[in-house]
Amino acid sequence: MEYEVIENYELKKHTTFKIGGCAKRAFFPQTKEAFIELLKELPNPIVLGGCSNVLISSEGIDADVILTTKLNNFSIENNKIFAQCGVKAPMLSKEAESKSLSGMEFMIGFPGSIGGAVFMNASAHSQAISDTFLSCHIFDTEKKEILELNKEEMNFSYRTSVMQKKPYILIDATFELRPDDKNEITSIMNRNLEFRKDRQPNLTLPNTGSIFRNPPNDSAGRLLEKAGVKGLKQGGAEVWTGHANFIVNTNNATSTDVLILMNKMYNEVKEKYTIELVPEVKFIRTIGVSKTEDELWDTMLNKK
Ligand SMILES: Cc1cc2nc3c(=O)[nH]c(=O)nc-3n(C[C@H](O)[C@H](O)[C@H](O)COP(=O)(O)OP(=O)(O)OC[C@H]3O[C@@H](n4cnc5c(N)ncnc54)[C@H](O)[C@@H]3O)c2cc1C
User: Fold this and answer.
1) Are 73 and 57 in contact (CB under 8 A)?
2) Is residue 169 in some structural domain?
3) What is the CATH number of the domain that holds 180?
4) What is the pTM for the complete model shown?
5) Does 25 participate in catalysis according to the annotation?
6) Is the pLDDT of residue 109 over 90?
7) Edge-to-edge, what's the strand order for the sheet holding 22-29?
8) Distance 53 CA to ligand 1 centre (A)
9) Is residue 36, in this structure, part of any structural domain at all?
10) Among this protein's residues, is 280 annotated catalytic?
């Protein structure tokens, strides 16, 4: 079968945060058929794309992981774009630009895959992946079957989709874009990149994007800044001094460092504004391996 498998794979090699212990086995399928076979055969594998929205436990994961990086076929026909789940979002944004298609300019600045972007309903600069989404193929890991879902069935809303509630894995997706003036598309993309330069750490300071979701009608960054958390440190992790909703890994931070820091941020905002921030980052772990981490995470999900 067309896949590579590596035992005891250190996931921090792959995450934008440069944090994460070993997975039991890491699978890299090269074809859709191999991906589906793995999804059928492996019990509860964790599927990851660009690993740019995850905090992976430094204690490791007692599970198999499927990394979609080699599932990177795409095609463009008229104003429709088809992409497998592992296609890199910024690359697809550039391809759309080259064909004078508008709707993906927002994806130029973040290092995710199409699978992660659909799962998260990634968005920025008043555009979201749901805006151009037409349909997708998913694998239902409970029923072990492939389904085709349309936009309505995806239940997209702010940073979520049906995929976060059901046992669905994205195989590929089709988008419908709008033909527009290429210079205009290029200038929007340049503006988006310029905007990020000042407000987000680049990946030379390993990070995983926004830590908390924006609460309704407010901004997590604004609340955190007013709560005075910028520059707070825990082990090798630090709240970025440029924007209070980012944690940067300055010196071999562990997942526990990040979770302790997240709890401090969460508590400061809760005490000052009685607002309970909700993590945007997905914490990937095996429950029970680190009680400390389980407790820190559950506190923020209001389970304790
Ligand atoms: C510097 C920086 C800037 C960022 N800016 C933004 C931004 O402006 N807007 C924004 O929305 N996000 C932003 N992010 C976060 C992140 O890049 C996006 O959410 C991205 O879409 C996640 O994609 P990924 O492939 O990296 O997902 P991963 O981190 O690999 O996974 C995220 C979640 O998606 C699931 N997943 C991944 N692939 C699949 C699949 N094929 N099927 C089912 N589930 C899957 C994973 O299991 C996990 O739960 C930023 C991140 C960084 C580091």
Assistant:
1) no
2) yes
3) 3.30.465.10
4) 0.96
5) no
6) no
7) 3-10, 22-29, 61-67, 46-48
8) 4
9) yes
10) yes
